Amino acid sequence: MFKDSLFKYFAIFCTSIGLIVLALLLFDIFSKGLTRIDWDFITNLPSRRPERAGILTALFGMMWIVTLTILIACPIGIAAAVYLEEYSSKNRFAKFIEINISNLAGVPSIIYGILGLEVFVRLLKLGNSVLAGSLTLSLLVLPVIIVATREAIKSVPNSLREASIGLGATPWQTIQRIVLPACFGSILTGIILAISRAVGETAPLIVVGALVYVPFVPQTPMDQFTVLPIQIFNWTSRPQHGFVVNAAAGIIILLLFVFLLNSIAIILRNRHNKRVKY
């Protein structure tokens, strides 16, 4: 009992210290960055002068990357999870695949960057394009989506499957109309976690050739690009105080972007959970 109480108080103490440090960090960022955020900061191109520098190219590049990553990773991840959970044989090979998918979720992101550089940039000759970056981040988030989707599918009671099959539905009709709608909210939670991780990644994108300075807005998936985390990293490495303020403002925009994505997904999940009860 004494050890349990000691561990409990130690965990509370560490959590409190972490929250205090986070609060101080956010206070410092917001106190510096809010004074810089205006319409010019959002619509201006990068510049060597901090008072003229903006995040337009980085913001559009990030939107391109996130959109393509969602379109590539989500269908593949959900389909792979459905196959592994509903169709594959429960043999040693299937267990080997399951273990490796779980392990891939913990692989450092720089490894995915090296893989993307070799496969997408050099082998497929996509260059340092938006598409190459999106494919690399799709590899990064696929294990998270697969694992989360499999756990969501497992949570659906077998009685629903048996009732559907008993009424004459095929296995695919059961999955399409019963299983996936019933666990859609949990699947969406996994997608939220995966995309939130992708938004903040810089190492894989730097490895595949994302640029620090891009004087134009990407128009197609084959254009060169930069993203907001890379732009923030570039500004923090500059000695001028104005770029430090710009970095703080960029962090605020990045946080708002992540919160917006999460809020949309949470609203969709809650609306779905209200309609689906089992």
Give short descriptive properties of this protein.
278 residues; mainly alpha; MetI-like fold; Phosphate transport system permease protein PstA; phosphate transmembrane transporter activity
Q: Judging by the overall fold, what is the CATH architecture?
A: Orthogonal Bundle
| Rg | 22 Å
Low-confidence stretches: none
Global morphology:
globular
Helix and strand succession?
A: HHHHHHHHHHHH
The percent range for strand residues is under 5%
Q: What is the helix content?
A: over 70%
- Strands, total number: 0
CATH class type: Mainly Alpha
Mean pLDDT: 84
Biggest sheet layout: none
Total tally of structural domains: 1
Distance between the termini: 39 Å
Looking at CATH, the homologous superfamily is MetI-like
- The quaternary state of the protein chains shown equals single chain
CATH domain fold name: MetI-like fold
What does this protein look like?
The chain is mainly α and 278 residues long. The chain has one domain (34-275): MetI-like (MetI-like fold, Orthogonal Bundle). The protein has helices at residues 2-33, 39-43, 56-87, 92-104, 109-123, 130-154, 158-166, 171-182, 184-199, 203-208, 228-236, 241-275.
